[in-house]
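From the methods appendix. Each design record in this collection lists the tokenized structure first, followed by the designed amino acid sequence. Records were kept in a plain field format so they could be parsed without special tools. The example shown here is representative of the layout used throughout.

RECORD:
FOLD TOKENS (785 positions):
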């Protein structure tokens, strides 16, 4: 249980109590993997399909009481809750088999005892394991004692009494085991069944033939090791029972009686769920491998597209406006744009891109998806569209909407692949009112976009309808599906604030109804070639990319915009060029994935040399870097390849003009273990326009400086873990040009002596506490402006 979350079922019809439970579990970060049932009927259905570790059930439910479910709870630990305040209810629950009870109060204080109550209930499982171990030890003792008694005829009566006592204890243990256990005679007749086995078979089948009762077979089980057990061997095997089609690990052990006859005890441990988990793990590993492959393909493809788009744009401006060549080049750009969308689909599939929601027209996404589906469908499947062109926009990620249509379309194709049929796709607006109970939707009243994808295939059986959105669940054969398609669709719809319903009848087809909330504003189509003039400039740019073709293309684009470009195909060479003349550049644009030194590493090294240099990171795809990480280390802009001329031109101006408008904000690192002093210094310096970061000791301060260098460090001298003197020594050793101000309130020796040492070690200014605001600011301005 320590290695996984506790699987918990909460049976509660009060939404407020449900929310209080969920909030408490999340706030306390309790290790619960919980499911909530709102009624007796719902709980009954869930228990039949999911195995739980513990049940928490309200006594009074909308369609009955929790007592009606006790037969379904079986051997699970049950905790009964009630708001009635009647101790008689709790007593009755305990009589029926509950482990404990909780009296609910209006303030929700009863939840505070929840973790300990659950822990006590789960202790029962641990006790069962201990009982099993005790059973094994006791069986050995019984056999040993029996052998001794056979050799001691004079003590037979005493031995028989001891054996009888042992058998009663043995039976008591068997009665509490969660595994199904039975004992069979040499002629295959059942001599004993524990309660778990009785429940599995539906009756006490003592004296019946074991293979027929337990497995619905007409002859001895193929895996039966009766002969070996009769010979005294212990045998274990793994089987799938024809009776319930579940997997079991079977342990068969001989039981020797006083008259020399041998019975066979068989313990059935249900391993069905474990085998499913192992299968899901293997499938997840396959999906991870596919995702890694997709990321690699996307990176290389984006680099190729970058060159195609860039050189095409350059060529467009080199031919007459409106010429046939320019029109052809425009078509090349459109094709490259579609290819770029395909890359985004690959990355979306591999779950390696952040999903960007924006106002979109679903009609246009549908058109692209249907064209793709149409290519893959055989002539026996007809597509019928009913698209309302006046449908309003939704706030969504177009790649994910495309993924919804493709997954549902593929599902429909599989349902009709043998006999053919009709794939229908409908799109329309629909208003859902507060009293529209007929929809049975988890949606707020309002206007929604309704997408219907339906087929005339074989339909879905009612007994698996509840599982179709489960990850990895599939009815298709090996190689025909991963079981992820509908799970992905469900996740996307929920993430977009919508809902999904399925209507199906075996033999007549299936219809998926998807609802997405409409928004007020309309969508904006993305332009391939912007009608606006691309901004120009004359600044000096260091451009770094390990692809020679990309470097040549970008250099031409930037020079056509008026910039002075220094190109480099090696990040190491770019670093050396910058270190030699750091003031010769106004901007650095670097690729991320390069040999020897990545773009992020290059950026950090450049910022240590010149903290005010603006840097743009450009990448085809990287698992190591995203926009948030890039900006956290000081990079101004993060853009994905391929980049069109308009975008790179506007991004450059945004960065350069932004620096010019606001000036370069200087960064100060404060190191002090006194929270009040940290707060006072932060407020003082931030009022003067400085960016401030802080650390409570020298060890943390050095780590922060290594991650992102500051223009100035203000450090206290006396601190825990790493004192100021040690901090100054290490910083000046690794970063000789670092600017430091030391402050001290004294310690074992006077502050003047500490500060004198700091001055000798390289501190530019030193101050005794309390520091005068005007003197400190004057020193800061002199050092960093």
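DESIGN:
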């Amino acid at each position: 249980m320590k290695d996984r979350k506790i699987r918990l079922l909460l049976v509660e019809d009060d939404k407020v109590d449900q929310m209080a439970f969920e909030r408490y579990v999340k706030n306390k970060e309790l290790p619960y993997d919980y499911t909530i049932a709102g009624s007796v009927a719902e709980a009954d259905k869930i228990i039949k399909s999911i195995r739980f570790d513990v049940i928490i059930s309200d006594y009074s439910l909308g369609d009955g009481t929790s007592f009606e479910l006790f037969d379904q709870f079986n051997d699970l630990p049950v905790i009964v809750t009630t708001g009635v305040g009647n101790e008689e209810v709790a007593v009755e629950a305990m009589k029926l088999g509950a482990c404990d009870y909780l009296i609910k109060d209006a303030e929700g204080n009863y939840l505070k005892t929840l973790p300990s109550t659950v822990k006590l209930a789960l202790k029962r499982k641990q006790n069962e394991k201990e009982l099993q171990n005790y059973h094994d030890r006791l069986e050995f003792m019984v056999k040993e004692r029996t052998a001794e008694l056979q050799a001691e005829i004079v003590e037979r009566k005493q031995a028989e009494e001891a054996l009888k006592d042992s058998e009663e204890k043995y039976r008591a243990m068997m009665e509490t085991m969660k595994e199904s256990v039975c004992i069979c005679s040499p002629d295959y007749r059942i001599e004993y069944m524990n309660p778990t086995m009785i429940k599995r078979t539906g009756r006490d089948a003592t004296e019946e033939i074991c293979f027929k009762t337990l497995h619905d077979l007409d002859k001895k089980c193929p895996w039966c090791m009766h002969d070996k057990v009769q010979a005294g061997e212990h045998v274990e095997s793994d089987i799938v029972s024809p009776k319930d089609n579940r997997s079991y690990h079977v342990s068969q052990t001989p039981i020797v009686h006083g008259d020399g006859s041998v019975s066979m005890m068989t313990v059935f441990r249900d391993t069905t769920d474990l085998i499913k988990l192992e299968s899901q793990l293997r499938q997840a590993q396959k999906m991870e491998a596919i995702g890694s492959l997709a990321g690699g393909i996307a990176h290389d493809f984006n680099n190729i597209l970058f060159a195609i788009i860039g050189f095409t744009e350059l060529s467009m401006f080199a031919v007459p406006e409106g010429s046939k060549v320019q029109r052809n080049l425009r078509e090349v750009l459109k094709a490259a744009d579609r290819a770029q969308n395909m890359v985004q689909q690959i990355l979306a599939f591999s779950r390696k891109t952040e999903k960007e929601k924006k106002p979109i027209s679903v009609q246009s996404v549908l058109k692209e998806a249907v064209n793709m589906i149409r290519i893959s469908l055989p002539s026996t499947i007809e597509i019928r569209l009913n698209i309302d062109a006046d449908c309003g926009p939704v706030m969504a990620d177009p790649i994910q909407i495309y993924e919804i249509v493709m997954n549902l379309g593929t599902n429909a194709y599989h349902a009709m692949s043998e006999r053919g049929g009709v794939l229908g796709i409908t799109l329309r607006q629909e208003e859902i009112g507060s009293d529209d109970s007929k929809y049975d939707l988890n949606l707020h009243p309002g206007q929604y976009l309704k997408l219907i994808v339906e087929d005339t295939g074989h339909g879905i059986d009612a007994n698996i309808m509840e599982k179709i959105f489960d990850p990895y669940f599939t009815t298709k054969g090996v190689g025909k599906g991963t079981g992820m398609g509908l799970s992905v669709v469900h996740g996307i719809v929920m993430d977009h604030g919508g809902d999904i319903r399925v209507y199906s009848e075996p033999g007549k087809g299936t219809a998926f109804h998807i609802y997405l909330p409409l928004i007020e504003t309309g969508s904006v189509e993305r332009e391939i070639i912007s009608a606006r003039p691309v901004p120009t400039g004359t600044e000096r740019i260091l451009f770094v990319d390990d692809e020679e073709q990309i470097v040549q293309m970008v250099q031409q684009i930037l020079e056509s915009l008026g910039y002075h470009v220094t190109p480099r195909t090696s990040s190491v060479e770019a670093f050396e060029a910058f270190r030699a003349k750091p003031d010769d550049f106004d901007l650095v644009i670097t690729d991320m994935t390069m040999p020897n030194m990545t773009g992020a590493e290059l950026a950090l090294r450049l910022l240590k040399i010149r903290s005010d240099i603006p840097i743009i990171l450009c990448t085809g795809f990287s698992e190591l870097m995203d926009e948030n990480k890039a900006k956290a280390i000081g990079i101004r802009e993060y853009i994905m390849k391929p980049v069109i001329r308009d975008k790179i031109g506007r991004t450059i101006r945004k960065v350069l003009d932004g620096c010019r408008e606001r000036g370069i904000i200087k960064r100060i690192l404060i190191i002090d273990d006194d929270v009040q002093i940290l707060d006072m210094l932060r407020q003082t310096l931030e009022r003067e326009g400085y960016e401030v970061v802080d650390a409570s000791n020298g060890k943390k301060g050095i780590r922060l400086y290594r991650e992102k260098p500051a223009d100035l460090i203000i450090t206290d001298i006396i601190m825990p873990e790493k004192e100021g003197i040690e901090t100054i020594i290490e910083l000046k050793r690794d970063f000789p040009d670092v600017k430091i101000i030391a402050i001290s309130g004294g310690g074992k020796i006077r502050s003047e002596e500490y500060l004198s040492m700091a001055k000798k070690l390289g501190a530019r200014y030193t101050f005794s506490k309390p520091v005068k605001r005007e003197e400190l600011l004057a020193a800061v301005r002199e050092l960093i402006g």
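APPENDIX NOTE: Confidence is low (pLDDT under 50) at residues 477-483, 522-531.
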